[in-house]
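sry for the spam today, last one i promise. struct tokens for design, 159 residues
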């Protein structure tokens, strides 16, 4: 059975919360997930294997001042794939679709994210998609680990 990538439905938030708790130390209250889905439905994407939710990505679009003009920046808040479904290109597809929806639906011209400096799989994924390390955010995570802030111009290229 193939894996379908599509915008999340509100009925899938419980699955998303479960995946988040299973796979990432950064967890959020349920209300946060509902708010992101209602504000940015085109960049809250799930990966479905039949009825099973096997991955998700959440992107928020933020207005920031850049060289004296307002620009929309996409912020990847959270992305993960179920352990049993990794290394099949699902993470890459989630990133491509959500980031490029941020470009086409919400007029974001760049995308950024924070990633643990020791998270080699994720850093490798982001670099392959054209992200570059912009800075180190010292002690960013609650356990004291540093984050790389990585950034790319939109749209991302498929290649
Ligand atoms: C990061 C994550 C989302 C990648 O999902 P995935 O579906 O396995 O990724 P893909 O199959 O699309 O992999 C794309 C590329 O990412 C890199 N990558 C993914 N897993 C990797 C691993 N275990 N080791 C090294 N590189 C890896 C590779 O460059 C890979 O390309 P390749 O398969 O051609 O070598 C997944 O490992 C995950 O959920 N990790 C835990 C949560 C997390 O760290 N999220 C990111 C927080 S910033």
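last one done:
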């Amino acid at each position: 059975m193939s894996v379908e990538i599509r915008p999340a439905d509100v009925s899938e938030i419980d699955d998303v919360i479960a995946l988040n708790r299973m796979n990432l130390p950064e967890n959020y209250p349920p209300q946060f997930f509902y708010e992101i889905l209602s504000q940015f439905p085109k960049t809250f994407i799930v990966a479905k294997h039949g009825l099973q939710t096997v991955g998700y990505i959440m992107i928020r679009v933020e207005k920031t001042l850049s060289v004296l003009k307002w620009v929309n920046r996409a912020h990847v808040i959270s992305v993960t794939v179920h352990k049993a479904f990794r290394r099949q290109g699902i993470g890459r597809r989630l990133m491509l679709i959500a980031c490029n929806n941020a470009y086409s639906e919400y007029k974001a011209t760049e995308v950024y994210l924070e990633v643990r400096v020791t998270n080699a799989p994720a850093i490798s994924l982001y670099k392959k998609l054209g992200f570059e390390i912009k800075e180190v955010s010292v002690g960013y995570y609650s356990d004291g680990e540093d984050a790389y802030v990585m950034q790319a111009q939109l749209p991302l290229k498929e290649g």
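The mean pLDDT is 97. ok im logging off now
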